[in-house]
Design a protein that fits this description.
The structure holds 2 protein chains of 2 kinds. By secondary structure, chain A is α+β, with helices and mostly antiparallel strands. Chain A has 15 helices and 17 strands. In chain A, strand 16 and strand 17 form a beta hairpin. By secondary structure, chain B is an alpha/beta fold. Chain B starts with 14 loop residues before the first strand and ends in a 10-residue tail after the last helix. In chain B, helix 2 runs parallel beside helix 3. The chains are: A alpha+beta, B alpha/beta. Chains A and B meet through helix 10 and helix 11 of A and helix 1 of B.
């Protein structure tokens, strides 16, 4: 019977032990009480980067010397080892490597006939698990910090929170319009921080990047807001810090969440601005309606009181008529602005002589021009006939002239029109205080006025919005030229032939 | 236009200066005040109001729209408050929005009228403004 003898042979026992040791994913080391290495597996050697020559010496001390440098806290590690060698306890603890790995270490005494003869150490790599746990915690905390609608406060909290988790320093740079980015830093120590002006190319293309500057690794991730890069988060590693793919992924996610926070904050600001604008419009509307109603009420009560002479009666009736026209114009403007905004304005094309329209408008607005003290000059040259909607062209000219009367401060107003080939162009110029260049765009937005600190000028601020919307829908364009203190010129060009 | 009045004799210091950028409202207020025996001088801008105040003996009251272009009613009131000669002048604020009411409170105006105002309110406010303070001689 040869089989039992094979089972009991020392070669088989050794082979069995070796195969078992190598079949596990954990590193295993067995050391006797004198510090001699009895057995270890390949996983242990690779985990601790132990060269073959060192393990051949089979001594615990040189091994300890070799591994100490790899750990974040070598002193505590060594103390733990010494304590466990002199005890019969079982143990489980965590070892944190400088390169970011986390190893769960467990140990138990080896006994022969109840007597301790050595210790078995097991090393289980839990880096991935710990990282998942860390990422979940970090992202949850970061989301809480980024919930603040004050974006400076939110990002300050974030950059302080991620140190030292993701590096020794962290900065958030925001490009919110200035030449230099606005920097929010984790600490006051600026040295060693990356300069936003020298961020690597991948970041500027919207990708994460790691690079070395001096002896430190840097990691930068973009902060996307919608489709634009609104800024970057930059992390500076410690002297031995490498950024793992997991670190990069976590940092990128923080960048994404910072972007969402900025977007939320901007949306909140926009919502607040919209509410303010609505209140402003309501207030202006109230003022604009109450004016003519006041005139009508006082006039009607005066008429009711009796004893008014013919002159007073006539002037009160005129007044009621003017106030009625004001209210009607006001409602028409609101309705037109709404029709233009929703694309529901209907145009009735016919042959229109711009010269006639301009002259009509000037006659109609003559009382206002006279009252304003402005002197009106007309210069109309060439063929000014086109295929337009007469009512709407009239509206363009009326609004331009009303505007010049309102803002012209009683100084001369010039209207000129000329034939520009396939276009007819009309320019209305006042010599009022003009509009600052940064407000030029605003004058075409509904309910906004560029000229002076708004709101006291009567009307809803829809005039130029309507002018531009009609001109654009007729295939034309509007240009504004203005200098502070030097008046404003509005130029409207309309194609003479109907466009689609 | 012929102004109707119910009084042919004017006492000194009983005239009212009215400032509003809405010419129609000015015409209506001027007519109402004249028909109720007040002497109203009207202007549609604050700068002209300041010129009038510089040249004439001070009016008994100023009725001012608080929301006007260029120089607002509030700015006019502040400019007036810097002049000791106008310290006795009563000021009635007029406006059609809530900001006007707040401005009137902030400026501690003697009276505030919210548009749309009616004849009764307007005349009563001007009468109160012209009424004598304690120890003063009665005004007509």
């Amino acid at each position: 019977m040869s089989e039992p003898s094979i089972h009991q042979s020392p070669q088989l026992q050794t082979s069995l032990l070796r195969a078992t040791l190598e079949a596990t994913a954990d590193g295993i080391l067995v050391v006797d009480l004198r510090g001699h290495v009895l057995v270890c597996n390949e996983r242990f050697l690779s985990m601790w980067a132990i060269p073959p020559a060192l393990i051949e010496r089979q001594l615990d001390e040189p091994l300890l010397d070799h591994v100490l440098d790899q750990l974040k806290n070598p002193i505590e590690f060594l103390r733990g080892v010494r304590e466990l060698y002199s005890s019969e306890m079982e143990s489980v603890d965590m070892l944190h490597f400088k390169d970011g790995r986390v190893i769960e270490r467990w140990s138990r005494p080896q006994r022969v006939a109840g007597t301790m003869v050595g210790r078995v150490w097991g090393f289980h790599d839990v880096t991935a698990r710990e990282q998942l746990l860390r990422n979940a915690t970090v992202l949850s905390d970061a989301t809480r910090l980024l919930a603040s609608l004050d974006i400076t406060e939110a990002l300050s909290g974030l950059v302080r929170y991620v140190v030292p988790l993701l590096g020794e320093h962290c900065v958030a740079d925001l490009w919110d319009g200035g030449v230099m980015p606005r920097r929010i830093a984790s600490d006051l120590l600026e040295s060693g921080l990356p300069s936003a002006l020298h961020y690597p190319r991948p970041l500027r293309a919207g990708r994460c990047a790691t690079y070395k500057e001096g002896d430190r690794m840097h990691l930068v991730v973009p902060i996307w807001v919608g489709s634009e890069i609104a800024g970057a988060l930059a992390f500076v590693g410690g002297p031995d810090r490498q950024f793992s793919p997991e670190d990069v992924e976590l940092a990128a996610e923080l960048g994404r969440r910072a972007g969402l926070a900025i977007e939320n904050s901007r949306l909140f600001e926009q919502a607040q601005a919209a509410v303010r604008a609505r209140d402003e419009v309501l207030s202006t509307t109230a003022h604009e309606i109450r004016g003519p109603i006041t005139s009508i009420r006082l006039a009607i009560q005066t008429l009711h009181e009796g004893e008014a002479n013919e002159t007073t009666r006539a002037s009160m009736l005129d007044l009621i008529e003017r106030a009625d026209r004001k209210l009607t114009r006001f409602v028409d403007e609101l309705m037109d602005a709404n029709r233009l905004r929703t694309g529901l304005m209907v145009f009735h094309f016919e042959k229109v002589d711009l010269r006639e329209v301009i002259q009509d408008v000037c006659v109609r607005l003559d009382p206002e021009i006279t009252r304003s003290g402005s002197e009106l000059t007309l210069r109309l040259k060439g063929e000014l006939v086109g295929e337009w909607d007469r009512l709407r062209v009239d509206q363009i000219i009326s609004n331009l002239l009303s505007n010049a009367i309102t803002y012209g401060e009683g100084r001369p107003i010039d209207i000129s029109a000329h034939d520009a080939g396939s276009f007819a162009t009309v320019a209305v110029r006042d010599h009022g205080r003009g509009i600052p260049s940064n407000l030029l765009d605003a004058v075409f937005r509904p309910f906004e006025r560029g000229a002076v600190a708004t709101r006291h000028f009567g009307g809803l601020g829809l005039g130029l919005y309507i002018v531009r919307s009609i001109a654009v829908q007729l295939g034309g364009r509007v240009r504004i030229e203005s200098k502070e203190g030097n008046g404003t010129t509005l130029v409207v060009s309309l194609p003479k032939r109907r466009t689609n | 236009m012929t102004k109707e009045t119910r009084s042919d004799t004017w006492e000194p210091n009983t005239w009212v200066l009215v400032v509003d950028d809405d010419e129609d409202i000015l015409e209506a207020i001027e007519t109402v005040l004249s028909r109720h025996g007040f002497r109203a001088v009207v202007t549609s801008n604050a700068q002209t109001a300041l010129q009038i105040l510089r040249k004439s003996p001070p009016p008994a009251a100023l009725l001012v729209d608080l929301r006007m272009p260029f120089m607002t009613g509030s700015e006019l009131v502040r400019a007036i408050r810097n002049r000791p000669t106008l310290s006795d002048m009563r000021i009635i604020g007029l406006s059609g929005d809530v900001e006007g009411k707040m401005a009137a409170e902030e400026l501690a105006l003697d009276e505030y009228l919210c548009k749309p105002v009616d004849v009764g309110q307007l005349v009563a406010a001007v009468r109160r403004a012209l009424a004598p303070a304690d120890g003063e001689q009665a005004r007509p």
